[in-house]
Amino acid sequence: MPADFSFLAERSAMCFADSAKDARPLILVAPDALESKLASLPQAQAEFVRAQGFGAAAGSVALLPGASGVEGALLGLGDAQARERTRFTLSLAATALPEGAWQLQGDLTPDALHDAALGWLLAGYRFARYAPDAAPKARLVCPDGLDRARLEAMAAGEAFSRDLINTPASDMGPDELEAATRLLAKRHNAQVSTISGDDLLAQNFPMIHAVGRASPRTPRLIDLRWGESGPTLTLVGKGVCFDTGGLNLKPGASMGLMKKDMGGAATVLGLAHMIMQTGAKLRLRVLIPAVENSVSGDSFRPGDILTSRKGLSVEVNNTDAEGRLVLADALALADEESPDLLICMATLTGAARVALGPDLPPFYTDDDALATALSNAAQAAGDPLWRMPFWAPYEPKIEPGIADLDNAPSGGMAGSITAALFLRRFVTRTPRFAHFDIYGWQPAPAPARPKGGVGQGARAILTALPEVLL
């Protein structure tokens, strides 16, 4: 039965108000300016605000009554510490305000204004495929000076990523991930080709085939291309649609979130939407090795030695370190074209979470200029990243002696770094390469980020592209 992707259609919640006409004022106020602001209001409104206990905490809202109902609202900015500790706090107003159009009033820096507008759009996301969940109906008038189309492209791309990650593996296997990619391609007049099943062996993708062959859901390599001129950008995303751990079976508690193990694929697809929707002048390629790491008599085994597309032999010391195997074949293919920029995104290691937590994904690159551009863009886009090193002294850890490489070095230390070093071995021709070890999941609700799937790094990459590529 064909997959139903009607839930991936863009929703009205992911856009701004169509017009400023009849928009009510949303007045920004800091705690230290609250009393002076109240003094400027009609007495009845000021008393009503005080009765609500409003103290201008970050993201808090106080409605202002008028003769015909609510005629405006105050929106708290919070103190400096609150603004530093929490992203997108002003987006809380999106769910607290009544239906209708709202227009910000008050002074914000350009970066803060961008965060407020983007956060409002992101707060409109709801995953309602399996149960109804009404999106907020308050709409923001896009503030002057901001690129509305670009902000909406960012929000729609993020919604696409979240939808893909949130969909359980029962409805998001390799076939469905390919269908979602084709849906995206059709929208943007891109081309998609796929190599699947035993054709992976015939066309020299042995590690993708080895990881996916145990599942009745056919493994494949999905290849999307878009754009006819400009510099070349290739995105590679890990598409492990469910990860049991293989014969090194995960315990149940560790398996519960493994529908998100295709978060790298979901994120590069969301980023691809942002790039294509904004009409970036480049040639884009997206490669997704899509597999399910299952258990059967045909499972690849601990101790197996696989020969990769690159020709490097890999000793399998843990079948639960499968992501780097499928990525290696995809990266080798990408590297054969030597694109101007090659980016890999994957929910790859628990070590990255131990080091930096769920909210701050590390990235790796040998290019200092690229690293600086990504770090600056992460700050500007409200999409945090942290550079980690390709630490050469750890290279011996991934060299087992019996083969060229070890997919799971013993000892358990520096796991994110050794995984990144493993992937770098498959990129030898491309001048600029970056690997992102993302989490792809929001463990608890936060402003503009409900609990569930989340894209990480995509907006930062999009923001950095003009400096590093265009």
Give your account of this protein's structure.
With 470 residues, this protein is α/β, with parallel strands linked by helices. The chain folds into two domains: 6-146, 3-Layer(aba) Sandwich (Leucine Aminopeptidase, subunit E, domain 1), CATH 3.40.220; 152-468, Aminopeptidase. It contains 16 helices and 19 strands. The protein has helices at 34-39, 43-51, 80-85, 93-96, 110-122, 148-166, 174-188, 199-202, 206-212, 252-255, 263-277, 323-336, 350-356, 368-381, 415-424, 458-468, and strands at 24-29, 61-66, 69-76, 100-105, 138-140, 191-196, 220-226, 232-237, 239-243, 283-293, 305-307, 313-315, 341-346, 362-365, 386-388, 405-406, 433-437, 441-442, 452-453. The strands form four sheets. Strands 6, 7, 8, 9, 10, 13, 14, 15 and 17 form a nine-stranded mixed sheet that branches. A hairpin with a 2-residue loop joins β2 and β3. α9 (206-212) packs antiparallel against α12 (323-336), α11 crosses α16 and α14 (368-381) packs across α16. The longest helix has 19 residues, at 148-166. It is elongated, with a radius of gyration of 24 Å. The two termini are 42 Å apart. The mean pLDDT is 95. It comes from Thioclava indica. Residues 318-325 form the Cytosol aminopeptidase domain. One of its GO terms (biological process) is proteolysis. This is Cytosol aminopeptidase domain-containing protein. InterPro entries: Leucine_aapep/pepB, Macro_dom-like, Peptidase_M17_C, Peptidase_M17_N_1.
Task: Give a brief outline of the structure.
The chain contains 16 helices and 19 strands. With 470 residues, it is of the alpha/beta class. Helix 5 packs across helix 6, helix 9 (206-212) runs antiparallel to helix 12 (323-336) and helix 11 crosses helix 16.
